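Exercise 7. Given the components listed, write out the predicted structure of the assembled complex. Treat all entries as one system.
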Amino acid sequence: MKLTEVIISITIFLISVTVFFSCLINIRRNINTSSQSSNSALVVLSIDHSIRNEISKVNITYWKNFENEFSSIAETVRTRCTEKGIEVLNVTPIYDKLNKSEGINVTWSYNGTNYDTKEFIKQRIFDE
Amino acid sequence: MNNRESGFSTPFAMTVIISLSLLILAFAMLIAANERKINSYRNIILKRKEAEKLVKNIEENIQTLKEYPFDSLQEIEIRSVLETEAFHNLIIKDVSTGINKNFVPQKLLENEHIKKYIKLYDEKAFCNYGWINPKFSDDEFMKAIKEDFEKENLFPLVNSMPLFNVYYMPQEFIEGILEYFKINKAHEKSEEIISHISEPLTKDVLASILQVQISNPIFNCLGTKTSFWKIDFETDSYNVHTVFAAVPEKNDSFTIAKYILINKEFSYKGGKI
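Answer.
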């Protein structure tokens, strides 16, 4: 083999290796990002599911005033969620557009992003 | 070298191909597993929406019960009204005919016949639901309720609909209530009511059996309509518990204006996510 051919072969080999490893690093970075997004979506869904489970355990009797009972309910939901490792920012009451249903809105945080989980739990007795 | 023997399959190239394949395979398996779990959560949400829709359908269908002048022990007509959907294990129960621990006046609990009834039936003598009848509640309790809601008019929570459905009252309970309202020959009259239980019992028929006027205060308690129904059913993924309440007309407590949903609970049956 001539010297020039050897040099060209080595150059081509080095270029190939560089291109290959660049692609490999890029692919791995993309894979990491995709898998993190996928895992993140899964965690968000599972946290939402857990919060809805905790809210479903709340029982407000129909003959009690929802607003007056809310502070103790909010504290219970917050404590139960915090015990499960969920970072709860706020627990507020919610009402539907027709003012027929009352419920709980839990604002929570995961990975720097805030989310809301809303669940209606009680029907209003009185016609407004 | 002929064309059939030419090619590019150096160990380096093979190593590269195998490494890349393994990497992509691992990634694909991770994504597939996550995708399955995400689909499971999506499925839970969809199933929940289906269960909510069934509850909505029950709420629409149960309005037909307004037309029935009495809710008798024959629940067939109630089931026929509700069983328009494919429910599993539909259970319908009167949950307001009983002594409501929250609203019962103290005087009733001190009545000897009621005490006897409670001793006989234990926890089954009590119920957790019911409207508040102002003519059958302690004044202090009424005051506390008005303060809690900060309003005077508490309809329909406070209304004059008869508290108990006579069709679901044991004979001992009927007797206790008759004794409480000082109706003569309470035992005999309670037996007579029970003997008529398979027939339509109107307010006039009851008044005739009890030999009282229709305006007698006993009709704050004795009626022929159930005020709170508990309706439980199952879907593929959820156990659903609901309570519906009959709201009477404002000026006629014996006529039902509508049924409203008081309480609903969805519990996920579980399973692998």
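Discussion: The helical segments of chain B are 11-61, 76-82, 106-110, 112-121, 139-149, 171-180, 186-195, 203-210. The two ends of chain B are 59 Å apart (CA to CA).
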